Amino acid sequence: MKRSSFGAWAIRRRVAFGLLTRETEDRSRDRECRRITARNLVLNNSAAKDSFAQGPKIDAMLSSAFIAGYDYILIQAQGNYLLDKPEAAEAFDEEMERGFFVICHLLDKGPSYFSIHHQCLCVDLNEWDKLGRPDFGAPDDEPTLLHRPLRSVENFHGKHTPVWIAPSGENRRYSRRSAGWNFINVALNAGARVAPFSQRLRHCKAYLYPENDDDYYFLMGDQHRAALAWCQGAWVANTEELPPMRSTEFAGPVETIFSVASGLNTYVFLERLGFDRHTAIHYIDASAATLAFKRWLLENWNGVDYVSAVTRWLGEQREITMQRSLSDRDVTAATDGFEKPLADRWKEFRHLSHHFHNVDLLTSDCNKVISLIDSNSTKTLIWWSNVFYSYYTHALLSEEANAALFRYRVEKIRARNPQVFVVGKSHVNESLCMRVREINVARLPRELPKNIYYPPELLTWFKNEQVQFREINRR
Description:
elongated; alpha/beta; single chain; six-stranded mixed β-sheet
């Protein structure tokens, strides 16, 4: 079973996405953090285009998503981003099956009441409705009688991050209330589950803390280093769904294929389009580890039991990590699509001419590879996967810079040979499956097309009609 995309998960679960905007004293920092979170929200996520709410108030986001007919809303403050969306979707699925009112970063504030950090939270909107659509709870210094939580002895870190809380059935007067206090109090009174982010979910996300000078600059540096590590680790699987290709578009056999090295999709292309003993494969990849794995695979694997091959290779390496653990769905995605048994095909593939280039398509080093393209060939294919639309790309480059690099790269290949066939993603996440001469390089980076956020002032006008609007939007 192939691992579903984050967008497919969001559509299936009816998840809306919220971008919580805040203003600090550094407006340029605010803009950069909004850019990072917005791009991360829509990165390979078709579901976000109609389910996106951007605004400064959590309560307004909840009502906006409820009116629009969604079952959940995942709210991220500017500067928050997901590192592994498929893994996050699976982790959220586990929590949804168990049931919750809110998943959040829960803080034990000592003399102040427990609070919820605004950086990221996921709310079950049906549960929120059952609880009377409570307000999130703004900070307040007035002493108040509230439901005292029972809490775990263990913490995720420090002494202020409990692993769980539960109702005690007792009230206590608290001198201060911090953000999110009302969510917690209402949930405890009703016996609804307030779930701190699990370790699995914590490993799937990051936050830049734009409100804190020291944290922000260090974490921004960490993000850039993480993006480089993301690129440089070993990618043994590629779950990108390949587009159907007709013989009228590309009549094989393939003479030369220039391809990223992750997974086995390179050979799926050859299986579909045809190859012969003269076919040449040029692996072009920024990850030296992935190229090393592909060399090893060609020399040592017999085409049977891909997982054992990966395990054996990892056991022989030092200081090399995989970007993602290999799931059954990853294996299916990597080894599916062959008409003959893969073991039989693999014997043929191993005898083809292979070349390895440790080159980043986003740097000028790629020009060395372009010079290898036969200027007269009509049977040359390039598969660059999602190089121009990935976490790595958007962590390091602005939309404008990435658009310029995309245009430059396409024009260089077009000048070399306009007949080259290109498959992959464009800088605006379009699926490309066409001759390079047909690629539109003038497209501007796509903005989020629809904001479903209603400001609080407007929501009060039709407060009594919200359930009716929700029912209409769910039809």
